[in-house]
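Deviations from the work plan: none for this task. Representative record:
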Amino acid sequence: MAQRQLDDYSQIEGKPKKVAKVDTQQIVAKNGVGRKRLVFPPLAPENLSSAYLVSATYDGVSRKALIRLYEPESGRIFFWYDNTGHKPYCLTNLSPYDLEKIDRLKRHQGFDHFEIQKKFDPLLDKDVKVTKVVANDPLAIGGRPQGSIRDIIPQEFPKVAGTSVSTEVIKVWEARIRYYQSYFYDRRLFFGMPYEVKKGNLIPKVLVEAERAVGKIRNIFKDATAEELEHIERWARLLEYPAPKFRRAAIDIEVYSSIANRVPDAHEATYPIICVSLYGSDNQKKVMLLRREGLDQGEGNLPSGVDLEYFDSEKQLIKSVFKVLWEYPFVLTFNGDDFDLRYLAHRALNLGIGREEIPIVVGRRVCLLKYGVHIDLYRFFFNRSIQIYAFKNRYRDLTLNGVAKAILGLEKIRLEKGFGELSYAELAQYCFRDSEITFKLTSFEDELVMKLILVLARISGMPMEDVSRQGVSRWIRSFLYREHRRRNILIPNSEDILSKKGKTSTKAVIKGKKYKGAIVVEPVPGVFFNVAVMDFPSLYPSIIKIWNLGYQSILCPHQECQANLVPNTPHWVCTRKRSLESLLIGSLRDLRVNWYKLRSKDKDLSKELRSWYNITQGALKVILNASYGVFGAESFDLYCPPVAEATAAVGRHSITQILKKAEQLRIQVLYGDTDSLFLKNPSKSQIENLSQWAEEELKMSIDLEKVYRYAVFSSRKKNYLGVLEDGTVDVKGLTGKKKHIPLFIKGAFNKMKDRLAQVKNPAEFESAKRDIANIVLEGYNKLKRREWGTLNELAFNVVLGDSLEHYTKTTPQHVKAARILKENGVEIKAGDRISFVKTLREPHVKPVELASRNEIDVEKYIAHLHSTFDQVLDALDLSFDEIIGLTRLERFMA
DNA sequence: GCGGACTGCTTACCT
DNA sequence: ACAGGTAAGCAGTCCGCG
């Protein structure tokens, strides 16, 4: 089963119903910046002019949806409780008459009532009557180990039905959607958008400027159908509204530990918290230290403006931290879910601080706040899509230091000793830097990260907490679910989609894959001047749009659609009705390509506006890039393999057709991958012809993406080097750019790269070739003469993909090195980068720390230098062996 | 017992 | 837990080899 039994918020430790009684337990906290006293819960007033809807939960006490509104003027959070009487529910195909027979259901304490509802069944393609089973509590629907309504119905009905009823025909739908999501979908509320409270009711704000922009957009998309335009406008309305300033604070804690290098257990919370730092957007900078006996003041400078406060008791220190957590609307941590907030909460309990005084809600995998929104930046930066598409793989190490160094150029303070041995000054300095860095991860480039999370919350329809923690497939699922509810379409169960439309028909090139993917054109080896790169902008989303792909439309039940075949597959696509995916993904794609990308570069707009548009187009890019893949991912709740397969098949068809056309137009294609073509010195009219043909015949645009002054291809696919007119060098796939190879080799490679950047025309190539040969020779000689700097220069840095025990089939070199490290008492876990060098004696590897320079296997390094350079030398008509002076005979003998 | 041909595993990359 | 395709390097296996 792809769906999870329980959600994070139902797994909150302790008894959810005892969390903060609304009327009796009022917690009053005075914050440090002279604001008003805070009363909990901070109810929204009867009238509130404008506040952003940032988060929501189910409140077990009032049994209502609870919405957090962020009001940027005062920088406060207000709580708004549902006033419409909306309740949790699920749907079933059993009639109320049948359901009445199920005693356990009727007697269930959370059960409220039945309603008959008409819904559209997307898999049967017709209206159906279903029963809405309404409950008083979302946990009654699902979330209790036994005795949840969603389980009782299929389990109990066959027993009471009289005749034999198979469990399979009894359906329960929409029982696994979190209540606050369900609430938002039904009430058509949008996370991240501003609302006003008027006489206690929530009303969306309308902004004149945003509406004006929507009007402009409407004019741009003249060719869109009415249905498409409707969706484009709906998205644009979400994206045109500006972002607020986020009042926020980053915190970081340090815990005393007797053993250096061991992370204290956040659940046990045995050791005292000795230091906490705070960095606020309102310039509140603070370090709180626990006084300990015999500790030196020590030397060390805190940046100016940082308050230093000492506490005699840890309890007082923690209470002081809690004031901050009861105060700020947004709290930032780096790994606070697993460590900082979790430790604080457990430590507080250990010290006898009352539950109601603790501002943290500790879940199984997350830690949330009772007042504000906790954003764990570790979780956000861990997201693969964010890493790749939003930050272009700029950071590699998923540590605070790694991310900050790559993005901000800021580093943690290096420690020579354990926390236990630091003086007050050293500890304060160290701790403060961490919260400073954490904060700055959200403030660089005009608060990009906060805005990105906001935009993603709007598009996905998820609270900021969730959107910052969950992956792109959840975001996509959420906006598709939202559209189902909007149109009164039953949200299908994953297993029903799969049993109806689960089969694929093509054979993947790679063993173990489910279907065939993209085409890579065999490159023509050599150096070519004036290479034009053309590509289909967001090819797969375009295909989903144009071919009307979706789980409903593929293999639809209509006879007449069966002739509408996807090229090279037996799959047909519906001709009667537009699929939700086609409309939603297609309109997002069109908006990005034809509006947001252009606006982000529009010099007539203010810098601020351009930056906003740039963030928006970046968010769209992240989503669009994943919008095809999710349909081929089992974990996606609308998993539908033929949709993914059809998308890839049309992709292959498109590039194959354009290759043929290029040949007809006598344009030589040097290379191509998935959605791109590299053309050899084409004329303007040839390019024009090609793109016109694609527009007419394939109904797809193809753009001239860039022109390389020259490009170097080896005979290997996904391996090339291109020099743009401005001298920038694009290196793709070559070993020389891979992050794990030794700096020594990378250095030599980069020298070659810099030299190649200077070549302007074929004539200049000859002297460049001589220089490159010298670079290679220099590297070779240095190795031969063992003239490297530190051993670090020779270290390979390979990420350990799994925990050490997991490697049973083979033992790769980095695993060998990691095991040696472990024997030496170093803690090793999945995701660690292992640095090792190649040595002469068995087992031919050693962790850098443990190796000495005389045991290096120089010949191995020469072999690596050789293969790294071969990828380029081939094309330049140079030979590694000749460069290093091997005679033809010696080469023959070797 | 050893080397070459082969397959499989693992990582890092491309679109 | 978005997909499939490609390259590289090494580990492990099989088989021939008087």
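Confidence is low (pLDDT under 50) at residues 1-36 of chain A.
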